[in-house]
Here is the input.
Amino acid sequence: MLLTTAKLEQALFASHISHTIEAQIGNTPLLRLHKTARAYGVPDTVAVYAKAEWFNPGGSVKDRPALNIIRTAEWEGRLRPGMTILDASSGNTGIAYAMLGAARGYKVRLVMPANVSPERIAILRAYGAKLILTDPLEGIDKAICETRRMAAEDPNLFYANQYDNPANWQAHYLTTANEIWEQTHGQITHFVAGVGTSGTFVGNTRRLRELNPAIRFICVQPSRPFNGLEGLKHMATSIVPKIYDPTLADENRVIETEDAQRMAKFLARQEGIFVGLSAASAVHVSMQVARELDQGVVVTVLPDSGFKYLTQTFWTEE
Ligand code: PMP
Here is the structure.
């Protein structure tokens, strides 16, 4: 049967989209953490699921906000051909910008503390991004200040500003939350996520709460400022992102680094799920929440895999 012109165009458009790297962002699997739940004493009537965000082509949850930030800025005319994308990133957002910048023809310049894991730095260099490394003792906040200074001086730089840019949380509002809703057939009762920029927590909470106001939202933060939990922020001692809304969470819980490390090893060895420490933090708290319930469906987000943290020694320590 011959395709009409409109249908042919539609088919071509669909096939073009499905062949781009950015079309592979989102629609990540939702994994059930059976063995972990059993081992942590969660009742059989409670299910714990986790969104496996390392299935994104850049390897982390941050592909979603990076794509939405770039598309929104292009649409608004703030990002134009020939410009350079600039931001402060402790790694994953930077990797996402580097990947998308390469695909879309933008140069990418990233400012980050020099103690970011060597694997992340190597990945960014592989994608061709230019890196500016700041004093590790002053953390991501120093990188943010440096980025602001550079952006003010050079109009050819597009300052993506993931910490203050609403397109960050809106990416989750538009994609992740709806995927979770569909994948749980609307049965989700609790949502647990860690906060860095807070885009994941804010965007998912705003959308899922619209879909069902009875869902409870639990926000996870490190217990102390220097914690080794890459990607997570201790808000009380940090520059607070403008997109963070502390009134959204029904509950805030803290995670100890040692508990996250123990959980990362457990997940790798008992579930075959190899994730980073922010993911392990979210799972640890999800198990605490799930254990306290008689019935429910707890959903969390696993921001990235463990591959970028292989040089950390805790994997092989007792
Ligand atoms: N974990 C990792 C590994 C991350 O890279 C990030 C992003 N900074 C987060 C957690 C936190 O996500 P969000 O910025 O959406 O709060």
